[in-house]
């Protein structure tokens, strides 16, 4: 009788362990490679890495790993009225890529996103200039930093953005005619914004 009970308990434990292992493997994040994405005609679970928030005081970045072509989402929250300054994003080679200003007296919550790309104005003309570990700091407090990594794989359907260096325009809508007609966007009519 004890032998039968022991066998039944053993089988029950084996079934429970099997169900637990099955659930863990089925609910674990499965990231597919870019090559697998194209081989399976886009029918894969996910090419990008899962969210893994990186925190530094009121600053939050949504991930620690990105593919080239992904947006980097930034949240600055719980600011006090006396909190003001800038958050700087540096490429792996130390080039200042993006700055986000904040002022807690204006609002206590900021959201922004940007996509690292090749930019002629910042002399970032090779995708290798973007690949690696980026550094994010509060200006004036460079000792405290968080990092994220941009990997060499390119987000599917975004390959064309990493072929040649682009010119980034910063327009001031309060100053009509601030851009000479020779530098207008394609399709614009010369002298349409001249006062």
What does this entry look like structurally?
Strands 3-9-8-5-6 form a five-stranded mixed beta sheet, with no helix packed on it. By secondary structure, the chain is an alpha+beta fold. The model has no long low-confidence stretch (mean pLDDT 80). Helix content is 16%, strand content 29%. The protein has two domains: 2-30; 36-183, Immunoglobulin-like (Sandwich). The chain has helices spanning 2-27, 34-39, and strands at residues 54-56, 59-61, 65-68, 72-76, 84-90, 96-103, 110-114, 132-138, 141-154.
How much of the sequence lies in strands comes to 25-35%
| Strand segment count | 9
Total of domains: 2
Q: Quick one: CATH class of the largest domain? A: Mainly Beta
Sheet having the most strands = 5 strands, mixed
What would you call the structural class?
A: alpha+beta
**Whole-Å distance between the termini?**
100 Å
Let me know the CATH homologous superfamily of the largest domain: Macroglobulin (MG2) domain
Per DSSP, the total helix count is: 2
Query: Unreliable segments (pLDDT under 50, ≥5 consecutive)?
Result: none
Q: How would you write the strand order of the largest sheet? A: 3-9-8-5-6
Name its key features.
195 residues, alpha+beta, Immunoglobulin-like, 2 domains, four-stranded antiparallel sheet, 16% helix, extended
């Amino acid at each position: 009788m004890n032998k039968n009970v022991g066998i039944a308990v053993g089988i029950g434990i084996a079934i429970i362990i099997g169900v637990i292992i099955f659930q863990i493997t089925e609910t674990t994040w499965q990231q597919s490679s870019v090559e697998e994405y194209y081989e399976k005609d886009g029918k894969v679970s996910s090419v990008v890495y899962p969210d893994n928030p990186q925190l530094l005081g009121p600053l939050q970045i949504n991930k620690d790993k990105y593919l080239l072509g992904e947006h980097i989402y930034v949240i600055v929250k719980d600011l006090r009225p006396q909190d003001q300054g800038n958050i700087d994003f540096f490429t792996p080679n130390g080039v200042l890529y993006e700055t986000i200003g904040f002022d807690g007296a204006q609002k206590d919550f900021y959201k922004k996103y940007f996509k690292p790309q090749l930019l002629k104005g910042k002399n970032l003309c090779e995708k290798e200039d973007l690949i690696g570990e980026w550094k994010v700091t509060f200006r004036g407090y460079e000792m405290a930093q968080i990092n994220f990594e941009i990997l060499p794989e390119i987000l599917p359907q975004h390959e064309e953005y990493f072929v040649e260096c682009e010119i980034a325009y910063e327009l001031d809508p309060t100053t009509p005619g601030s851009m000479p007609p020779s530098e207008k966007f394609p399709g614009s009519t010369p002298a349409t914004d001249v006062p």
